[in-house]
Write a structure and sequence with these properties.
Number of domains: 2
Order of helices and strands: HHHHHHEHEHEHEEHEEHEEE
CATH architecture of the largest domain: 3-Layer(aba) Sandwich
CATH topology of the largest domain: Rossmann fold
Largest sheet: 7 strands, mixed
Structural class: alpha/beta
Helix content: 40-55%
Number of helices: 11
Strand content: 15-25%
Number of strands: 10
CATH class of the largest domain: Alpha Beta
Shape: globular
Radius of gyration: 22 Å
Length: 299
């Protein structure tokens, strides 16, 4: 294919992919998409141009920039490292709620936690990871399930790591304050026992109590960077995160999770996600989008 023919298929180089205040060319979009893929393994097709424009236009205004080309020059520069992180946070979708995909928490309560909490009662450790935790509602749901079964769990060696690439979500999780609608699916008795009333944006809300806070620790973490955790986990939740990665990055992530789980440890993934790559042979299905690491495999 000739260069002229290729350019005709891509459209005029100065045509904006999205009509609006700022020019966003196909070249600008490719620069942003490549940065997202390099930094976080996120696959971003051109069909996401409108989302990119809407999320980043506010950053251009805040920085006083006149075009996405100027913004791309910034994130490519050494001086733009902080802005590149802000871009990543802005383009990362954070959809969560308490008890999202409730079958996972029913499985956790009936099939997984009884044995693990029996270990905790004997003084042994239990470690759970909420990877891609958003603002903490998933991790605190796990804590609710644990506390409903073992009210003194906060005094035991039971800990939940909640990690996310977005520092804004980590700060929200650490604050642990949610509006009324977020707790719609939380049992009223559990709400009364493990939440305190609080104000959020001037409205009535709920704050997780001290027992919940003792169980959950928040940490900013890129899933494709080096993981600082040394101990293995009994359970990993990573739901509706891998759908944003290409197949190679998904397969790499599943393999890394396999190496980070205890034998017979459980991995919970999103309803649209499937295990792929060599890690698929290491897990056995244990429920709806629920997988158990085979104790016979050496990872």
């Amino acid at each position: 294919m000739t260069q002229a023919r290729a350019m005709s298929l891509a459209g005029p180089p100065d045509r904006s992919l999205v009509p609006g205040e700022f020019l966003l060319t196909a070249e600008d979009f490719r620069t942003i998409a490549q940065a997202m893929h390099t930094d976080a393994g996120i696959h971003m097709p051109e069909s996401k141009a409108t989302l990119v424009y809407s999320r980043l236009a506010r950053r251009l205004r805040a920085l006083g920039l006149e075009s996405f080309r100027a913004y791309c020059e910034l994130i490519r520069s050494n001086e733009g490292a902080d802005e590149r992180q802000r871009m990543l946070a802005a383009l990362t979708t954070n959809v969560t709620r308490f008890y999202r995909e409730p079958h996972h928490f029913q499985h956790l309560k009936t099939k997984v936690l009884p044995g693990l909490l029996a270990k905790a009662a004997r003084g042994e450790s239990v470690r759970i990871w909420s990877a891609g935790c958003s603002n903490g509602q998933e991790a605190f749901t796990v804590a609710l399930v644990i506390l409903s079964m073992m009210p003194d769990a906060a005094a035991r060696d039971v800990r939940i790591l909640a990690s996310d690439i977005d520092p804004n979500m980590i700060e929200e999780g650490r604050a642990g304050i949610y509006d009324e609608t977020a707790l719609t699916d939380v049992n009223p008795d559990l709400r009364r026992r493990f939440f305190d009333t609080a104000k959020i944006h001037g409205r009535e809300g709920w704050s997780v109590n001290s027992d919940m806070r003792k169980l959950v620790s928040f940490r900013e973490l890129n899933l494709f960077a080096k993981w600082p955790m040394k101990r293995k986990f009994d359970i990993i939740f990573c739901r509706n995160v891998a759908i944003y990665f290409d197949q190679e990055h998904q397969a790499n992530l599943w393999s890394r999770f396999a190496s980070t789980l205890m034998p017979n440890g459980h991995l919970y993934i999103g309803h649209s996600e499937r295990l792929a790559g060599s890690a698929g042979a290491l897990f056995v299905n244990d429920g709806i989008t629920t997988w158990r690491l085979s104790g016979e495999n050496k990872v």
